[in-house]
Write a structure and sequence with these properties.
Blueprint: H1 2-8, E1 22-27, E2 47-51, H2 65-78, E3 84-87, H3 117-120, H4 122-139, E4 144-147, H5 153-164, E5 170-175, H6 178-182, H7 184-190, E6 193-196, H8 198-205, H9 224-240, E7 244-246, H10 254-263, E8 267-270, H11 272-283, H12 287-299, H13 303-309
Parallel strand pairs: 1-2, 1-8, 2-3, 3-4, 4-5, 5-6, 6-7, 7-8
Helix pairs in contact: 2-4, 7-9, 9-12, 10-11, 10-12, 12-13
The chain binds phosphoenolpyruvate and magnesium ion.
Length: 318
């Protein structure tokens, strides 16, 4: 019965009482939008995170302008509803690219990565923004564009200026650094939306390398301190009337998805296999239940207690 119910819930994401929550996809290329043979297309409302670095990795030379336009256009054309949130290049010494030719660093995760690369190689970002704008014109879509690793209001304003100068209308930032979460309201004076990258936000809030298996408990997305940062960003979004989504792994946990919605998040972006279980979970929870669960999770001593205390939805949607 459980299986049939999952298959039965389709269409836009919503709670049992109809509160809309956009369910979006994380992709690296247009190929990620083609369903495996024999399976129906994923029922999502767009792409919430297009990780453009996949075009740049394992390359001796920077991909050319035309190649970038073609790759972006393919994603814009293939995305459900033509809705795509493009993330500009997230590379640096943690994801080294030969053509960037950056000096080695003792702490690459704390070094020149993400948007910070544009401090030393500004042309790479400008070319990418030009290519995104051209692909948008060619496909007749209006992509949203955001930068990774934004840390200060000045960085957000500079990125927004460069993107808007090219006709990009929806400009945002990923919130992956606690300093950005603490300034979410001010960031939204400069930007149209925020997308919380819980993978890096956990790493930087808990001072725990995201690859470090022995520290998995600190990186657990149910950590109340992480949820507090999410709550503050969502509150800033509500006050500004601007969208605040989550695109890290946290969004793919069906029970946590309801908590994030209760905290005020307006979209959840995840890899394709997680969409159906998350949609199903939300469809069984009222917005009030999501808010109650969010309060319980925020007040918990830790992730295990938070998981224990929240109340999953029922088929009746309580
Ligand atoms: C994140 O940090 O949560 C995120 C979505 O970006 P990535 O996993 O690509 O670093
Ligand atoms: Mg990240």
């Amino acid at each position: 019965a459980e299986r049939r119910r999952t298959a039965g819930v389709r269409g836009p994401g919503r709670t049992s009482d109809g509160h809309p929550v956009k369910l979006l996809l994380n992709v690296g290329s247009a190929a990620d939008l083609r369903p495996p043979r024999g399976l129906p297309a994923v029922d999502a409302e767009g792409v919430g995170l297009f990780r453009t670095e996949f075009l740049f990795l394992d390359r001796r030379e920077e991909p050319g302008y035309e190649e970038q336009v073609a790759a972006y256009e393919a994603v814009f054309r293939a995305a459900p509803g033509g809705h795509v949130v493009v993330r500009t290049l997230d590379a640096g010494t943690d994801k080294p690219l030969p053509f960037l030719d950056l000096p080695g660093e003792a702490n690459p995760a704390l070094g020149v990565r993400g948007l910070r690369v544009s401090r030393v190689r500004p042309r790479v970002l400008d070319t990418q923004l030009d290519a995104v704008a051209e692909a948008a014109r060619a496909s007749g879509t209006e992509p949203w564009v955001m930068a990774p690793m934004v840390t200060t209001v000045e960085e957000a304003a500079d990125f927004a200026r460069r993107a808007r100068a090219r006709g990009i209308t929806r400009v945002g930032a990923m919130v992956e650094v606690p300093a950005a979460a603490l300034r979410a309201a001010r960031l939204l004076d400069e930007l149209d939306f925020l997308s919380i990258g819980t993978n890096d936000l956990s790493q930087y809030a808990f001072a725990a390398d995201r690859q470090h298996g022995d520290l998995a408990d600190l990186l657990d997305p149910w950590q109340p301190a992480l949820l507090r940062l999410v709550a503050d960003c969502a509150a800033a979004g509500r006050a500004a009337g601007k969208p605040v989504g989550v695109c890290g792994e946290a969004a793919a946990d069906p029970l946590l998805a309801g908590v994030l919605v209760g905290l005020g998040v307006t979209s959840l972006s995840m890899s394709a296999p997680s969409v159906a279980p998350v949609r199903e979970s939300l469809a069984a929870l009222s917005l009030e239940r999501c808010r109650d669960n969010a309060r319980l999770a925020l007040d918990a001593d830790g992730p295990a207690q938070a998981r224990d205390m929240v109340i999953p939805g029922s088929a009746a949607g309580s």
